[in-house]
Amino acid sequence: MASVFTKIVNGEIPCYKIAEDDNHLAFLDVNPLVAGHTLVIPKKETDYIFDIASDEHKNLWAFAQKVAKAVGKAVPCKRVGVAVIGLEVPHAHIHLIPMNRVSDMNFANPKISLPKEELMATAEKIAKEFIG
User: Fold this and answer.
1) How do strand 94-99 and strand 17-20 relate by DSSP bridges?
2) Is the pTM of this model over 0.90?
3) Which one of 3, 105, 124, 126 is most buried, by most CB atoms within 10 A?
4) What is the pLDDT of residue 1?
5) What residue segments make up the domains of the chain, in order of their start?
6) Per annotation, catalytic residue among 24, 37, 91, 93
């Protein structure tokens, strides 16, 4: 059965897209820890990030680096944190989280709810900073 992320890649579920190339997709997390929380995924569904072929793994991180730089320019923060948890969705993904304090990266924190308009505006702002 296709993961929710594969359904997003296939256009079956909408997302707040930030960047895309032939093999990767970056979009806002709809259940973020903080505003600007972004997910970067390979389009090819692989459950565990360390099961991705070496070249594809390197390319995923290179794409994530470009996205992280865009997030850092578009969202006021001291740093963009990165996490790979891998338990929530059986599709490898990288969390990019704008941070102003260490607690912004605490996945035990309650998720925040943002209006669609704010999610759209944030995605557009980050997308404008992305240089692919």
Assistant:
1) unpaired
2) yes
3) 126
4) 76
5) 4-129
6) 93
